[in-house]
Each structure stands twice: as structure tokens, then as C-alpha cells.
Amino acid sequence: MEDHIRFDREQCELHLLDQRLLPTEERIVVCRTLADVVEALQVMVVRGAPAIGVTAGFGAALALAEILRRGGGDWRAAYDAALDVLAAARPTAVNLRWGVDRIRRLWRAAGDMDAAALLERIKDEALAMQAEDIAICRAIGRAGEGVIGDGQTVLTHCNAGALATAGYGTALGVIRAAREAGKRLRVIADETRPFLQGARLTAWELQRDGIEVTVACDNACALLMGRGMVDVVVVGADRIAANGDTANKIGTCGVALLARHFGIPFYVAAPLSTIDPATPDGSAIPIEERPADEVRCLGGRQVCPDGVPVYNFAFDVTPAAFISGIITEKGLLKPPYATTIAAALSA
Fold first, then answer.
1. Which of 179, 238, 295, 322 shows a CA-CA span of 20 to 30 A to 81?
2. CA distances in angstroms from 191 to 130, 299, 331, listed in the order given
3. 48-78 pLDDT per residue, tens
């Protein structure tokens, strides 16, 4: 599935499948301005670190097109400010900053190119980023499918599939590649409260692919592992620190702790762009806090008493010591991660 992020180059519009409505409704949100893209990122029309990075490329094109439509003034200063706004839309997924920085580098390298010509170059770059991400996810799948044995059951948390990327997926890319290699497998998808990405999105993707999937509530994980119902865990990532500490959807660290207790391998699948060498360890990763009503309400119905405060941290950090391997497009990285990550990035 590669049509959930679609760019209309002629009209300079970004068409996004609204992931908030899945699996019961498939609706397209059309973004024409920087504000449209920022809102789509913040309310999670589009989510998942690689998909956020790709969206940043298209958002950068829309921002410059909007400035050109307005005309007048110093377009360079206005564009610099617009890229800052885009980069700040969400704090945890490093791919957002990565995507904006890639466009900035292209702009700086273009020198005195006029804005209209630059816009076409940025469109080219954003489309290249989208195509590269699909190729990278397929490479991650090939690199990681060996961690899943024939007949095994894989547990995954949140959604790290085609919807979280430009297509194919990271964690689900590993699962898809194992299936394509002829392996029989089953998947357990944690529901992933409060946004239910596992129940709504992962189950939807895998069912469409004909891959056997069962949804389990988040707090069933210990029971499932204790009964021998899980053979391997594969999850995605929103930011990986230089030492291998990994930020992913809230609840991931708990899954990793349980996997360690029950002796189950725990793998992270992510592109190298999700690794942030400027972040030394997990303590330096900013953790996004989202609106309380995402927890207070379920399906539009209030489930918490009035006046009771809510914690709604969107991510947690899994220590590198709990991770069996990090699957990237350059292969499977093993501990010590400070060494293997640095080598992969330098290569």
C-alpha cells in the first residue's frame, strides 16, 4: 500500500489518508498550505516516523508555493521561518527534523536560484524522499525477515506498517518480508491505547494482506508471553539515540521488559534516518504530551470523571540493554550499539 500519501504536483496539493477514521472509514484530507500540513501532523491524520519525514518534504514544497502565491517581501526570510514552523510540528519523531533539514540543505546548495525554480527542485526532492523510503522499508524487511522463524507468532506494538511509512513498513515490513519468503506466521497486535493504532491500523493492514492477525488489549501482554504464545517481538521507532535507546509509542518499554523477563527476543525495525546521533541516550529524547481528551474519551464517549487529571505521554524509551537487535536498511545492528550505530551511519 503506497497511495495513502499522494502528492499532486500540478496542483501542489498533498492528499493524505485520514488515519484517525480507519478502519471503518477511508477519507482523504487535502493539504494546500503549511498550516494544513502542520495540523495534519499534530492531530495525527498522518503519523509514524518515516511517514512524518516524507510528509515534511511535501510540506516544505507547499510552504514555498504558499509564499509565492502571496508575493512581495523577502521570500527567503519567510521560507526560513516556515521551515522552522514545520520542523516544530511534533517533537519526538526525529524524521520530521530530518526531512526539513534535507530540504534546507537542498535550498542552501541551490545558491541564488529563484523561488519558482527552487520549488520545482523541492518537489523533485520530496518525491525522491518518498520513493527512497519505500525502497528502504523493503531493504529493512529483507534484512530482518530472518529474525522470524517458520510457524512463529510475532507480537508488535502500535503501527509500524505501510501507514507509518511511505509504504511497506518497518516492523510490518519485516513481517511482510518473512511472509514473502514463504514462512508461515501469525501476528498479535497490541491495541495500543489511547489512539488504538494496533487495533485500528495494524490489524487493518495485515487483514488486507491476508496475514493472520489477532488483536490483544495492551495489558494482556504478560499473560500471552507467560503462556508461550509469543515467539518474537518486532516494533518500530520514532527516535533512536546514539547508544541504542529507543523512543517508540507509549507502552513499548513495558513490552520490552516483559520480553526480557520471559526470554523472548525483542527487535526494533527502523531506517537509519530515525537514528539521531546528536542525542547521546534516551534521557535526552523529548517526549510529546498529547491532549488529555485522547485518554478521557473513548469513541467520543467520556470515560473519566470530570476534574480528574490525565497523563497522556505519547512515547516511552526502551533502554538499549533490552533490545536484541536494531534492523535497518544496512542490516541487523547488534550490541554494543554505540559502535554498530556509528559504523552504520558512517557507511
1. 238
2. 28, 14, 29
3. 999 999 999 999 999 999 999 998 789 999 9
Indicate the range of 223-227, 244-248, 300-304 predicted with least confidence. Answer: 300-304
What residues have CB less than 8 Å from 200, skipping those under 6 apart? 19, 22, 23
Q: CB-based burial of residue 86 (10 Å sphere; 0-12 exposed, 13-18 middle, 19+ buried)?
A: buried
d(CA 58, CA 99): 9
293 is catalytic: no
Cα 211–chain centre separation: 21
Half-sphere exposure of 264 (CA within 13 A, CB side): 27
Please tell me whether 183 is known to bind a ligand: no
Is position 49 annotated in a ligand binding site?
A: yes
Q: How many residues does the chain have?
A: 347
Residues 136 and 271 sit within 8 Å (Cβ to Cβ): yes
Q: What are phi and psi of 48, to 5 degrees?
A: 100, 130
Q: Would you say 49 and 164 are in contact if contact means Cβ atoms under 8 Å apart? A: yes
219 labelled ligand-binding: no
90 is in an annotated binding site: yes
Residue 39 CA to residue 334 CA, distance in Å, equals 37
pTM of the complete model: 0.93
Task: At 302, give phi and psi (nearest 5°).
Answer: -70, 130
